[in-house]
Predict the 3D structure of the following.
Amino acid sequence: MTKRLLIVDDSPDIVEMISEHLSDSGCDIATASSGGEARTRLAGGFEGVVLLDFMLPDVDGLALLDEIRTVAPASKVIMITAHGSIGMAMEATKNRNAFYVHSKGEDAFLERLAATVANAFRNLELESRLERLEREVRSYSFDSIITQSRRLQAIFRTLENVVDSKVAVLILGESGTGKELVAKAIHYNGPRSAQPFVAINCAGIPDTLLESELFGYEKGAFTGAFARKSGKFEQANKGTLFLDEIGEMNLSLQAKILRVLQEKSFERLGGNETINVNVRIISATNKDLEAEVRHGRFREDLYYRLSVFPVHLPPLRERKEDIPILAEHFLKRFNEEEDRKIEGFTQRAMDQLLAFNYPGNVRQLENVISHAVVVASSSLIDIPDLPPYLQGRDFQGFAQSRSAADDLASDLTSKILPLDKLEELAIRKAVAVCKGNVSLAARLLGVSRATIYRKTRDETEQEVTP
């Protein structure tokens, strides 16, 4: 936040003296010698601190104070006077909402004024944080999540029972179903809402770096550690840590996460200091963690720690009643972002949107509408405005299958294959269909890019192993 300071006084000596004294405070200082000049400064939009003289040549200072309260309500006004009285000070602070009143003749005037200015900026920062928090609470309430699905609404009603508790919540669901949105709704509607919400994608960071991201490190802990860095657990203290794609975490790191959950403490990499933390854990995954436990890829004890309150978010294909209202929501948003005035969808375009099964779920629908808004040439989005994979004969066969894996399974009805092999074949087919576009294949399959790279790498290594 830029600290903007406006000094309004008709005495050049006073203005110069105050400006010089506050020159090292980090303020962006502007000045005005009259009420008219002050109005000009304020007219362009002002949020900061105003030092306002009671006596100006063209306007009464209290009258100008009232104007400032109207045109710049978020600002803090400190009145200064050479001929003040207790009555004037009471009028300014109690009835006109001035932040403070200083007399130019008081002892240590400049030092006391500087302290008051610093306090005013701190007050502004606190109010700004509170406003951001209130916006976040409104944005991430369960009521703000767009849905007509009775199934999803029932899930939200259930989750409202756990927002005030400390229990760990495990959110299950395919990629793009809104797991992080639900995690934020839990956090911002609970008692920790004023504390940090810290998210980390366990699939998006290499294993060698993930540990240092979670726990932080001391200077010199490894090559390149030039200074101490706090980790996500430390940053989330008293708040919520969201472990997204927890199913991608390796077993060694899982053991360390379990220890933190049990002991509520940890050490930074390369350090000996024990750091105590009070963190609520919300985790999410698109994997079947029970199956991962059975196959030895996820620790059973950690699974039970994380899944005290499990919840499964249904994919978009199982709540198609949400497609029209989500499409309208995204249309409105992208109209604003792209400065377009598209009014809606043709019936056949909406029918096409409803027919598709969205392996990438809500995130994929969002991308579809973004694409359509950019290329649409008329007031209504039509089929030619949709991405190519939602058009033509190829779409018809693809839309009827739940995912590339289901499509593949239907081709293999005469075969019984191990699940790992079936998964690997599904991934390879999806990558081929997407012409090598791994990001698109990942979205369509509802998995991370890291999963595709790992699975294809593992299979290649097995093929060359003697």
Observations:
- The first helix runs from residue 12 to 21.
- The chain is about 50% helix and 15% strand.
- The domain at 140-314 is CATH 3.40.50.300 (Rossmann fold).
